[in-house]
Prior knowledge:
By secondary structure, the protein is mainly alpha-helical. The chain has helices spanning 2-21, 25-51, 57-77, 81-86, 88-190. The protein is rod-shaped.
Amino acid sequence: MPKLHARAGRRARIFEAVKQRCPGANGSQATSKRIFAQLQNMFKVIQGVEKQGRTNDALEKYKIVVADFLACTEEYQHRNVLQRLVHRRKMMNELERIQGLANVLFQMLSMEMAVEIEYVRQQWKAERSELNDQLDQLVEGSSVSLLELQTVRDAVLLLQNASGKVAAVQFEELEQLKKDSSTTIENSTSSSPENDY
């Protein structure tokens, strides 16, 4: 029995020494739970994106990393203070590895987004260039049509002018013909035999 008490007393002293040297050890479990809850939310968001059919290779890899992070955090938070201290180096190495993977995947996602944005920009540029070409063709066609209309209008004006001149000449000729006819009739009348008597 004294040995059991001695062991319990020794373990209690170690536990107290650990708490004194690592004052945040007890709080680390609360932090671990908080991180675990955040990771669960992230995992649910990823699953929601997958259900919408908007997944890609980078997101799939990110999901695997988050699941790995969840398992690691869950294992860590279920350990007591002494167990967490014993496994601290292993867990820290694991978390650093996962953090490195997360950083790489984030860069991949950023690169994919940059490529997609560049593709959209190039597509918009091509569509804009095509639209400008269509507008240029439309303006050019309108200019040609306008020139044709102006040519037709000028021709109509020339025709009207020529017709007016011809009509004026014909009118003058008609007036002259009327005058000549009147003169001829008057001459005929004045020189008739009835006037001699």
